Amino acid sequence: MHEFNEIFMQILLLLLVGSFVTFIAGAFKQPYSIALVIVGLLIGSFHLPVLENAKEFITQSTVFQVMVISIFLPTLLGEATLKLPFSHLKENKKPILALALGGTFISFILIGSGAYYLLELPLVVAFTFAALMSATDPISVLSIFKSLGVSKKLTTIIEGESLFNDGIAVVLFTISSVYLLSYIDMGWAGLSSGIILFLKFALGGIAIGALSGYVASLAIKPIDNYPLEITISLLLFFGSFFTAEYFHVSGVIAVVIAGLIFGNYGAKIGMSPVTKLNINNFWDVIAFIANSLIFLVVGLEINRIPLENKWGVIVLAIVIVILARSIAIYSSLAFIKEVKGKEKHVLNWGGLKGSLSIALALSLPATFTGRDDILLFTFSVVLFSLIVQGLTIKPLIRKLKVIKSDQSIAEYEELITRQFRYKEALRDWQDMKNNLLLTDIEYNELKADYEKEMEHVQEKLHGLYNKYPTIKKEKKRNASRDALYTEYEAINNLIQREIISSKIGEKQKIEIIEKIEELNNRGN
């Protein structure tokens, strides 16, 4: 018991480190996943007695491997599907399906063949690795997209591709790691058996996910109790995953379908704005914890794997994955007119590997032949993907100019900064005058000069608003939302001071949250 408590405390310490790293990454406007991987590398490189038990538990314990696949996967997939509007997927269904189906299979075949012939891995190991590398992780890329103002079309495509190719990649992973050799021995009959098994995994997962999502949506319809509805979402994601796994179909696909139905149909018929806000906040926290541990694991694990004399094959593996991704992107989107050439370049380089690949690699049993090779190549590619691709995608987006010029934002920030400066200067002079450090004559002369400057700034702001009306609209929306949060805190203060009853306070807080949700929806 004491040993478990010690390990648990050390994992909490790792989460504390992850939280601090995330804060620092946010301050420098960098994706937290990249920062966590780098910190994981540093932690793994040094002997730290305070973290040794946790490092051993994370890198070697079969319990943690089960946790990764059984707890983290449903969490990450469920959280992602809740916030993805079905209307966005429908608008971009052609490129999403082309990438999720055609792109994933092309990547799988090319990476598997390259790993078999060039890396000289056994066939099962080569195609198991290929399945892991066929999945993409949009976490880092989406945070960069949002910070740069990349179009919703491009954001939806890369997020939609990731959700659906995750499910397909997991099915391919299962077939490759368990059934591949048997099917090869069967010849053409094995090919048909493989296709049937794939359809069974996929269609079975879709059926269980659809049924679970529909039932959960109906269950929350008569309920207006967000803690209970959050619990139902928890039961939905883990229940659909484990039910699908029990019937030997895809748990990942089941969670994706269940989440999409629950997050769209369920939200429409059964979720109040209060529930939506709270349920999204809950899953944000859970997904953050899962991602923090998984991305730290990349750094911890890579230090455990011996890299001596393997740099050549590691580089070759990275090249194989990058080339396969490029061929898959440009060939699967060749006849999709909705996606322009520059956008294809961004989708290609933005197809980062991440948490799913790591989780699946860690889920391989210690008895799996070639597990160490798969861990070596998977973690190396993920490391390269997150650090090199993750840090260069922003310059690439700017260079390709797939976003509108941010000159208007720069002008706006320049003007409000000046306005703020002048306002603070006037406030300082007012204090000096009140403290008899400035005479009325001196104060009025200084004030007159600055008030002229402020009038000039106001004129420029009005001109900017006329030229770029979206800026004014966005700033008003943000100011309104900020005021509503202030109102919310004011209500809490009145309740705490027993000036108003909790019943009246809760009623008004719900009204405020509904207005916040309405403002958030306007920005989507």
Task: Present the secondary structure layout.
Layout: H1 2-27, H2 32-45, H3 52-60, H4 62-82, H5 86-91, H6 93-117, H7 123-133, H8 139-148, H9 152-185, H10 188-220, H11 226-246, H12 251-270, H13 273-304, H14 311-332, H15 341-349, H16 355-363, H17 371-400, H18 407-434, H19 440-467, H20 469-496, H21 502-523
Helix pairs in contact: 1-2, 1-3, 1-13, 2-13, 2-17, 3-4, 4-11, 4-12, 4-13, 4-16, 6-7, 6-9, 6-14, 7-9, 7-17, 8-17, 9-10, 9-12, 10-11, 10-12, 11-12, 11-13, 13-17, 13-21, 14-15, 14-17, 16-17, 18-19, 19-20, 20-21
Describe what this molecule looks like in 3D.
The chain is mostly helical and 524 residues long. The chain contains 21 helices and no strands. The longest helix is centred in the N-terminal third of the chain and has 34 residues.
Helix/strand-derived class?
mainly alpha
Distance from first to last alpha carbon: 48 Å
| Low-confidence runs of at least 5 consecutive residues | none
Q: Largest sheet, if any?
A: none
Describe this protein with a few key phrases:
single chain; 524 residues; mainly alpha
Q: Summed up, what is this model?
A:
The protein is mostly helical.
